[in-house]
């Protein structure tokens, strides 16, 4: 039984760790922040949150060349989180055309809904970089910013009012924009199973 639990834990660890929290490539560099604190290396924030409790994520992307950028804050699908202040809605892709090779900051205030109350759920950041005039992505990636445990209690403090802007339907949609991450779903289900067998 101990060997099985260890095997499940190792598999979960492989799946839920971000592909990178600080990524570097020939196309640019990414730094990730949770509540204004830099997450070093492959560290993932693990907050305990109440329903409706706001938290901030910030992604700094330094591009090395002129590019088009697609970004999305996502999880396991559904309405597990809500963006109350940010450049795009939850699970909606934001398209930014022809960015100069400088730093771009994606920053948002997010609140958990009651759909996953009593459980733990990842919140991920997905991105795609296209070179000018290219339909196929030069690079695409997704990583976990925070693995949130949501209590059944409701947050009673002040929550920022929504300032999100819907993504225009006239903007192009990337070929590989995820609506759902299979790896993340498997990892979450494995974690729920692991917690269940420990009870």
Describe the structure.
It is a single chain. The protein is α+β, with helices and mostly antiparallel strands. The protein has a single domain, classed as Sandwich (Immunoglobulin-like), CATH 2.60.40. It is 16% helix and 41% strand. The strands form 2 sheets. Strands 1, 2, 3, 5, 7 and 9 form a 6-stranded antiparallel β-sheet that branches. Strands 4-11-10-6-8 form a 5-stranded mixed β-sheet, with helices on one face.
- CATH topology: the name is Immunoglobulin-like
Q: Report the C-alpha radius of gyration, rounded.
A: 17 Å
CATH superfamily membership, which one?
Answer: Immunoglobulins
> Which secondary-structure class do the elements indicate?
alpha+beta
Total beta-strand segments: 11
SS element count, helices: 2
CATH class: Mainly Beta
**Strand share of the residues?**
35-45%
Give the CATH architecture.
Sandwich
What spatial form do the alpha-carbon principal axes imply? elongated
Low-confidence stretches: 1-22, 164-185
Q: What can be said about the biggest beta sheet? A: 6 strands, antiparallel
Mean pLDDT: 76
Distance N terminus to C terminus?
14 Å
Order of helices and strands: HEEEEEEEEEEEH
Helix amount, in percent? 10-25%
The number of domains: 1
